[in-house]
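Work package 3, deliverable 3.1, input record:
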Amino acid sequence: MKNKESHITGYPTYAYVLIILLALTTISVAATGYHLGAYTVALALLIASIKVATVISYFMHLRSESLFLKVAVSGVFLIFTLVIIITFFDYLFR
Amino acid sequence: MTDHTVHTEHFDKEAGKLGMWIFLFTEMFLFGGLFLVYAVMRAQYSEDFHTAAEELNTFIGTMNTVFLLTSSMTVAMSITAIQRNERRLALFLVSLTLLLAMLFMVDKYFEWSHEFEYGVYPGSDVLKNMPHGELLFFGLYFMMTGLHALHVFVGMILLTINFIRIRKGSINQENFLLLENSGLYWHLVDLIWIFLFPLLYLVS
């Protein structure tokens, strides 16, 4: 960590990442044309999660950050997921 | 004061970045709270949310997604450019990011003014006469996209400061933490939109 050359990501990597993100967006928009019922939201959220993970790892360079930061970021998402689950338990089994 | 006074400026890049991430966590929970309200309301008024979401223009939403994703790439590339000491390229990439941000805002302006024309704006009579669920959907829609647009605006100010600093040379190959942290902020704006877009525009 100390005095280590900071990691430099090449331009092509970013371009590939953008292509993947745009492709996922296209799939997400195209999927609304099909009537998948309850799965529509699930699929949309799944694609959004993949996109978010890609942005965090590559654009925000989390993959080359310290383990501490990786754990912290995962922890925040975990807490938020738990908050949603607990809230819905409350609403559904009231 | 002796001649031997040495000024050592304390600078910890890791801490600077960590501080930015912690700030971003608070931002995630700010929007997280709104997402939570959205999830609960949607579960209770799913029919109304479907009908209301159909009113939104998916094309404009998709265009804005493309603008933000591309701008995220250009700002990430600008950091590579600064690390390789390619100043002119870095300046070009930051201005490209700014341009894409402006396109996002112009799009948003047209989208909102179109809705306002039909009387769809917070507190309007049209909204008041809608079924309760649709009123809630539009309330959340304006709150969430409005707060997001405010973040885009703040991001644009940050990018402008970075542009000036790169020009002046105070952001350079050795010292580019401000650009990195502004980049992180800009990506967060992108992250929030990645969730907002399908939840508001694609659920119909």
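Chain A touches chain B at residues 1, 6, 8-11, 14-15, 17-18, 21-22, 25, 28-29, 31-32, 40-41, 44-45, 47-48, 51-52, 55-56, 58-60, 65-66, 69, 72-73, 76, 80, 83-84, 87-88, 91 (CB under 8 Å).
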